[in-house]
Amino acid sequence: QVQLVESGGGLVQAGGSLRLSCAASVSIFSINVMGWYRQAPGKQRDLVATFTSGGSTVYADSVKGRFTISRDNAKNTVYLQMNSLKPEDTAVYFCYAQRGTPLGRAMDYWGKGTLVTVSS
Fold first, then answer.
1. CB-based contacts of 67, cutoff 8 Å, min separation 6
2. Which of 4, 23, 43, 60 could form a disulfide with 111 if both were Cys (CB 3.0 to 4.6 A apart)?
3. What is the mean pLDDT of residues 67-92?
4. How do residues 27-60 score in pLDDT, each as one tens digit?
C-alpha cells in the first residue's frame, strides 16, 4: 500500500504562485510513476504533470512554462510549483502514484486531493 498526502492548496489571486506537496508513505524509488492530476467542478480528472517511469517529465499543454514538477527523494515527496496562476487553474489537485507488484501488475494510488482556488 502507498499512502499519498497532499498539502499546499489554498486561495490565491490570479498571477500568484502556490507550491503543492505530495508525501508518499514509501520510498519514491519504489514508485514507477508519480505526479499530479486536477479536477475542476463538473469536469473530468486530467493530468497536470508527472514523472514517467523513465524519470522524464510530462506536462499538460495548459500548464507548460508555468508549472514545474520536482521531487525530493530523501523526503519521499513530489512537488508542484505553480506560477502565473489563472482562474482556470481552479480545481482539486490530486497526487497520483503507480507502483508495480511482485506479480508484475501495476497498482494505482491516489491522494485525497487539495483545493486550489484562483480568484480573478
1. 48, 49, 59, 80, 81, 82, 83
2. 4
3. 97
4. 988 999 999 999 999 999 999 999 998 889 999 9
Closest CA to 109 of 8, 2, 25: 2
Identify the burial level of 65 via C-beta atoms within 10 angstroms of its C-beta, where 0-12 means exposed, 13-18 middle and 19 or more buried.
Answer: exposed
pLDDT value of residue 55: 85
- Residue 29 DSSP class: G
Q: Angle CA(110)–CA(114)–CA(118) in degrees, nearest 5?
A: 140
Grid coordinates in use for 108? 494505482
Amino acid, single-letter form, for residue 27? S
**pLDDT score of 101:** 84
